[in-house]
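Raw record, unedited: Tetraspanin
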Amino acid sequence: MISVVLVAVGVYARLLKHAEAAVACLAVDPAILLVVVGVLTFLLTFCGCVGSLRENICLLQTFSVCLTIVFLLQLAAGVLGFVFSDKARGKVSEIINGAIVHYRDDLDLQNLIDFGQKEFSCCGGVSYKDWSRNMYFNCTAANPSRERCSVPFSCCLHDAGQAVINTMCGHGMQARGYLEASAFIHTHGCIDKLVNWSHSNLFLLGGIALGLALPQLVGIVLAQLLINQIRDQIKLQLYNQQHRADPWY
């Protein structure tokens, strides 16, 4: 049921978007991610549920093998991300820069970036001047946009007592130096903030990884136990049939 809800939400969000925006940022579209995760989860849980109810060895084997592959992929991703941290950092930087380019093309992506910049108190990838990659915030003199040399409002320093958010607080900040801009916006990039957060929350990340891995391991073990029980029952039935058919046995 959760898988169906994920697919429905992803498809609904996708249909609400403009076609050109959908094509432009297909690789970083949260709606597509929801649909893919929902479909894969549905197929996997369908094999496990129907296979256990019908005692179908083929479906149970499919469930067990797929779950094993998912577990090994997660383990490999964690190990490779730790060993090749520099390459992982470069990949994260590439994703963030691509998201900055399509910031105005996709409302879901825009909300996701704004949420990340607010939560981590950061702006851009490496620095706030990375927003010049976006055609609306580009700081060249030939850019006719009213947002030229600006940054999104999610980069701004907010006063706790401020009742109304000033969405134009980042206007012209790219044209200012780090020291001058730091009085109004967050000048540090989100990549360093994300790396520092992950280093300071290793136990939390490890707990999340363990929480995801344990149910998968339990599912694999239970599926194999059920398969062995079904095979034992089949062998017992064949033995009984042979014994009844052969009176001299």
